Amino acid sequence: MSQQTDEPAATAQASSAPTAAAPQPRRLDALRRRLPHSTFGRHALIVVVALVAVVLVLELTSPFRNSQFATMSYYAIAAAGLTVLTGLNGQISLGHGALMAVGAYTTGLLLGDDGTGLPLLLVMLVAAVVTAVVGAVVGAAAARLHGPYLAGATLALAVAVPGLAIYFDHTLGGEQGLPVASPDVPDWFSDAVYFLSANETPTAKYLAYLGWGTLLLVLLLLANLMAGRTGRVWRAVRDDEVAAELAGIRLGRVRVLAFVVSAVCAGLAGSVLGIVVRLAAPSGFTIVLSLGLLTAVVVGGLGSLVGALLGSALLVFLPPAVTNIGIGAGLDGTQAAQLAPFVYGVVLVLVILLAPSGAVGVVKQIWNRSRTNRREPSTRRTG
């Protein structure tokens, strides 16, 4: 009798286990139904949420942090473009610092010394177009190159472009650089920020808003481009060029398009850099900048826009933190400043050895493992 009474109880317990775990998938399904069905709508919703987070962060942080976030914005814009070129299309570029220089110098020439030139948004648009033209020329020349040959060609670009500023010193300012006028804070923008947060809007905060507004717009456009047919074509060329060519894809045209899109991002990043730093000088666009962008993309995760953001944040916030730790450990200012690049190099080597897919890849692996572990108990119960 006891065995007969236990069997129905065990059966009822086993049948109730899946229903106990059912509400969570149902909630997820209900949440997914409320999200926009189109890809652009989902990405736009994410950008709106990110914009709210940006407003909260900028209003709750100090002017020094605002300037750091402004610096992160133009690094992230350039890194997002490099993600498209290297992560999706497989072209290695060491010349994005030179493309940023094109955008910065174009912005300085159009704004003028006193800021009485063209409107700011028009200046940034022209800087992006000019850099796109340069990117099309370079991309067409490099379309037939692969691997180290392409890297060498873009490295030559990174070395040559800052030298042009020294050669045309009367127009571009030479080694001293070309001053870039800082834009005034519009009254309507200052009033809107004061209405929302009851805070004033100094120039540093306005530049951070300008940089992050540009960054979010770039991320929205790139995310939709990567999710569409163009992104699939880029991945196909990256994964197998022969198969892509047999499928009817024109490799040269695809590579040039990826280079142009990446160059537009670099031009916008250079424009924001010139406005934030208020100077376009050859010393700011050396090969170190290009290597830093490539490092940020690798550390964050190749082919991921979120990885570009993470790598840019590491590029901006890690060196000051390491410098402060070095000073706290008893090092002088020079030694502490030299410690920062060393630590950044160690982080890069560790990421390459231990996590080749970058920070985003590690997070995805942990997430997939956790989902697998959650599914296994329910599978055992149903079995």
UniProtKB/TrEMBL annotation:
The keyword Nucleus does not apply. InterPro entries: ABC_transp_permease, LivM-like. Its main location: membrane. Keywords: Cell membrane, Membrane, Transmembrane, Transmembrane helix. Residues 1-26 are annotated as: Disordered. It is found in: Cell membrane. It holds the Pfam family BPD_transp_2. Residues 8-25 have a biased composition (Low complexity). It is a multi-pass membrane protein. The chain crosses the membrane at residues 40-60, 72-92, 120-142, 149-168, 206-225, 256-277, 283-302, 309-330, 342-363. This is Branched-chain amino acid ABC transporter permease. It comes from Pseudonocardia alaniniphila.
